[in-house]
Specification:
Blueprint lengths: L13 E8 L5 H6 L4 H12 L4 E8 L3 E8 L2 H16 L3 H4 L3 E4 H12 L11 H16 L4 H20 L9 H13 L6 E5 L3 H12 L4 E6 L2 H10 L3 E4 L4 H4 L4 E4 L10 H10 L5 E5 L16 E5 H41 L1 H26 L4 H27 L4 H14 L13
Parallel strand pairs: 5-6, 5-8, 6-7, 8-9, 9-10
Antiparallel strand pairs: 1-3, 1-4, 2-3
Helix pairs in contact: 5-7, 5-13, 6-7, 7-13, 8-9, 8-13, 14-15
Amino acid sequence: MELASAHVVSEEPTLAVIGLNHRSAEVEVRERFWVSEDRRYAALHNLARARGIEEVVVLATCNRTEFILWASDAAAATESVRELLLRDFALDAAQWDSFYRLYDEKALAHVFRVTSSLDSMVVGEPEITGQVKSAWARAQQAGTTGRFLDAVFQKALSVAKRVRNETPIGANAVSVPYAAVELARQIFGSLEQRNVLVLGAGKMSELSARYLVANGASSLWVTNRTYEKAVELATLLHGVAVPFEDRWRHLAQADIVLSSTGCPHVILTREDAERMHRERQGRPVFLIDIAVPRDIDPAVREIPGVFLYDIDDLEQVVAHNLEERQTAALAAEEIAAAEAAGFRRKLAAERVVPTIVAVRQRLDEIRRQETERFRAEFGPLSEERAQALDELASRIIQRISTQLARELKQAPENAEQDILTAAIRQLFRLHRSQAALTSR
């Protein structure tokens, strides 16, 4: 979705999103405006008291910082966010241009897409939904949300759940380490009670081993040419460090061997694998070679029950899964768009309620004035006639206010609804304070 800044904003209460992400700003800019955990409550409270803002949630992840607002005055709310960034983050004009400003239906669609992981750097990654939920919970705890943002986030999480349930958007691995885990599960089913031997202690080894342990692998042995690095990684993952020269003693016990040593030559030959296979009495073993140059002799593939995947194999799996995920994302986009359209209609109906209430109050005021004028001109009325007159006036008011409410709520677009609302306020001489939003 194109994140063009929208500078023409509604004068009515509206949803607004002001933020930056991996597409709108370089990492240096994102780092500067990342709202740390200890600053989020202050940001929430400062913005909740600021001009134009009724409710606020702050979402801060490694790839985005967003201020999600329910604004009584979108222009004033936007300026309040800019003032916060100027004061607390030394914002300059060029950096402000990196912030997208989204309002009304664009803001709503954005929140739904973000929560459903359709706006993530890796589409379909599961972490963002939990991060959105945590950001909302933090704002609730701070007392900076009310019925409008609560409704928006409750619906956004519901949409994300529907996307997960109805599309395979998060089903397939789209990173090399996780692809290795996916293949291991295909070979063994459950990874519980499976032993893992890690050859090498670099970043790829660490990521892959983390996934294996997180998915149930029971015993983890780590070996490296520099023993201290093996100890460091083993300690991190609650495994056991093994001196590099003793690695073969654990080979036959390992169900999964993950190798990424950086050696300039093969360290696991076909003969080594055949000996291991005999000692395992034919039980299957999964060899993952993510080293370049390769650590494991490709001829190992010829041994029955020995499953070898190298970096090219894993990247092919990732490429295939990315294609499937993009296809799933198209279906997910349709779900999010349809849900946003339906919720927007509900939100549009909600946002005109203050104006409808103010109109009813003005009509009641006119009824009282005209009733008093009638009595002053024609004298006291009997109780029966006074009641009949009052009921007649009430029915007229009810019909007028009901018709106004129907027309406002059924206006097809927010822009048309805003025009009608402004016209009604002018017609009935309603000040903004008389149609103010009370959300908390």
